[in-house]
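Lesson 9: reading folded outputs for more than one chain in a single document. The general rule is that every protein is listed as its sequence immediately followed by its structure tokens, and records are never interleaved. Here is the first one.
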Amino acid sequence: MTRTGARVLVDQLLIQGVDRLTCVPGESYLAVLDALHDATVDVLVCRQEGGAAIMAEAAGKLTGRPGICFVTRGPGATNASAGVHIARQDSTPMILFVGQIARRMRGREAFQEVDYRQTFGDLAKWVVEIDDAARIPEIVARAFRVAMQGRPGPVVVALPEDMLDDVVTVADAPRIEPSEPAPPPADMERLAARLARAESPVVLVGGSRWREADRDRLAAVARRFDLPVANSFRRAGLFSSDHPNYAGELGIGPNPALLERVRGSDLLILIGGRLSEMPSQSYGLLGIPEPGVPLVHVHPDADELGRVYQPALAIHSAPGPFCAALDVLETAAPTGTARAAEAHASYRAWSERPAVLPGAFQYGDAMVWLRERLPANAVICNGAGNFATWVHRYYRFRGFGTQLAPTSGSMGYGLPAAVLAKRAQPDRIVVALAGDGDVMMCVQEFATAVQYGIAIVVVVLDNRMYGTIRMHQEREYPGRVSATSLRNPDFAALARAFGGHGERVDRTEEFSSAFERALASGLPAMLHCLVDPQALTPTRTLDAIRDDALARARG
């Protein structure tokens, strides 16, 4: 087994089941690019490292195994940091391999030299530099384990370019599977006792490490015990919105009735998630450290249990083993209750029909049309901005793994995530919804979609401003517009210039036919939808937000 370090590295990726990776090429890891030449790996060459890293993060979300991204040193690595941050906050397994200067040049501030342990120390679960090519199998195996185990997250591995050319004799590491902590029987007995006494329980699902079978088991348990189940922020694929026990999403601008249901619960079971800032309503929904409601927290990382909220019962378990244990829980099911039906009816009423807002293009109506038109397995991707509020409220996610969106609130996510999703699952419809400010963060990856014939549909909602910031600006500094206005390109023409399909949509009634033509084109497509700037949220106009702020200021 005498090989170059680069060949050893690529062999380890193959052993770990890597069949796709993203990259922006660089001279610092030319040896790896050469080793990939003959490997059975789908290498997606991207246009900017941020987009490449986002694609890798999306791959981690879809598969549960680390998405892989290669970038060059210095500016390549720092560009990729956006994707690393998303993976950290979203608990997504990902490995970023970074080309590094030669070992003999360290400490001289050589060309593009960066100390990656310092740069990524607060973003990644583990940062390591491989000095000895003979240790590549050991370190890559550990990187996969760290990325997947406990609370998943990103790992950064630096590769000195001269190390990759070293010739070594070394054995390969085995394929890594993460440990699956299971709930102790005593904890499940305590949970059964609490569940038997509860009159107003609520289940909240979030985090990662879920499989479709886990979701199915939880759905059956929810029916049996008449449990309302809510998804955490941007975790819509974890419980079907069509399930009769579905209570809605606990995120930005949630159903007020859902908030009251959580506050008034006598048993809150949080599975897999952390109840971080967005789902906790800026840490105001529950008390800290005492939540104020009996909390059962189930998480695969023991360090997350009691980190913010002190639970009545902490269960160290991955979602899979916990849902399996929950499925065979021996306790009497309630009779004569209708709590799940009430919660689901409230969700349906709140999300059924959008309000009419200013403008010829009613985004809410377009979202309802997509809800009815798209199959259950369609993948919906979005980045960050007020436009996403309509997605969370009016679209109904039914299939597992059908939402790709950053809980970190990172702009620019939707388009590159859609590219990866469609490449990985070409038979599914993949739609990216993006604001005008959002899409321009990674619009260059539309060229990647064209290069590889990846037929995504990007719906651009253009209100000619950074809408979320403008909303906050009008709320805090009414009438004092600063640094939030945008002058945008013709996005339909831009799509055509890249080699894709592009159309402009001015009116609601034009949307459905334009969308069908985009699908039928077989090309990466972009629909440029003109949104009235007044239509700032699903229920409130820009003027109304400003007028309320001015009224408060007047006392």
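And here is the second record, again sequence then tokens.
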Amino acid sequence: MKIRSDILRTYQSVHTWTGITAGLLLFIGFFAGALTMFGSAIDDWATPPDYQLQQVPIGQHDVLLRQVFAAYPDTVDNVTVSFDEHSSPVYWYDSGSARGFSLDDQMMHATLDAQGKLVSELRHVNELSMLIDYLHRSAGIIGEIGHDQAGVYVLGIAAFLYFIALVSGLIFLLPSLVKSFFALRKEKGANRFWLDSHNLVGIASLPFHIIIAVTVVVFSFHDLFYGGLSQVYGDKPLFGGDEHHQEVRYEVSALPNLNDIRKRVEDYAPGYEITSINLRGLTSEHPSASVAVLSEASFMRGPHSDFLFMNPFTLEVDTSSVINGNGQQGVWGSVVKTFFGLHFGSYGGEIGRWLYFIMGLGGAFLFYSGNLIWLEKRRKKQQVTQSKSSNFMASLTVGVCLGSAIGIAGTFAASKWLTLTALNINIAYMWVYYSLFFAAIIGAFTLGAARFSLVGLLSFSLLCLIVPLTSLCGLLLPNMGIWVPSSTADLGVEAGALCFAIAGLVAAKRVKHRVYHGEVNSIWYCQKLTSSKASSAHLA
């Protein structure tokens, strides 16, 4: 395919600057986003085994729920019944809520003892997976605009630039795409190898990246989009359902059995598994039941489930994210559900999650390698002396990228140890992450990009290695209070941490070679770490 050289240069320039502008924020979003694919496993791993109370047999949830209403009258406003064997059968927020990332949420858990009497306990909510999701959605940018984090809007702008970078990169690669797609030319130097790897990952996962870019823009600015659509739809609901209901106050005693609610849901959404029922405003004029249903063979609105909203007294379904062919969801509801499902990867089961995890890490590599390629290109133009802007960008790239990875690894490494203290674990998570993140940035500018890239990778590996070593301590010293993995999901988190540690050590070995034996005028060369003899040899 023949394209004029001046057009290619223009698209290459657009690709470079949009990628450089948005790349560091998107690295954090993609690295954390890859981990969110296993958010439930992370929560299970970070939560002590005795945190959840014993599940009750099907049929006993009604008995438990009635006792909860009698002992805690305020629960008629908001209470959740769970059928998950790894969850407490009934729970509700004593402070805080399930929306967003909160540092001081407290939850009451309830179950029945052997005599059928109510047992309840107050626990802090471990928000480790929510912290990871917060970083994924906002890149850790602190502050709020309206009802959402400021970082969500900033990341939305970055995703728009990212989409432009994808399109422009594809265009200027078209002439050489066929002959160089699978080429990884190590013999032509490190820069060519990085460029080939960057292009391969980018083109191979292009559909995934386009999906993520578009959906992030939609999620970030959905209020504006909905506002625009409301000008067309007027008072008609965008997502189906009928908002005009007769206002009737009900008594809790008239609440149907949970089995009746379950049967209504099963009739409405056959093939879906009911995981929980959240009951709200039971004595208000607008009582509701939000039923979480799971089908990994189809798109889901949430990261882990679909939702069905109904009146718990009349069993009338108001609206649902389940596509069941009755048209109740509405056209825009189907469109929005598709956007959510494509972004969350909430389809395809475990295989789908692993693919999104791998492609998420590939996306983080794409942004990091893009900055390295740009810095190398600048180095070749400058030949001998590196400009202050190049050194600044190198330190910023290493500091932000490794800093976010180190911060996340640090929260995992500290998690089980923090449970031994009286600290609010969620506030402690924030201190650990941001302390390590900003320490990494300061270290990168103080030590320089070359030296800190080595120090940072070793630090990351050490923190990842602490995760399985902590469990080993718990196994060898059971009285410490540290628990050991008790499920496949728990073992998966520990194995993942070990793999990250090994990958960090392998990368550190390669970086060390470049720091000691790289080209003298390279940003990644550190003269102080080499002998004067080696320096003379390089200069010669």
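What the second record shows: Strands lie at 78-82, 90-95, 106-112, 118-124, 144-145, 148-149, 273-280, 288-294, 306-310, 317-320.
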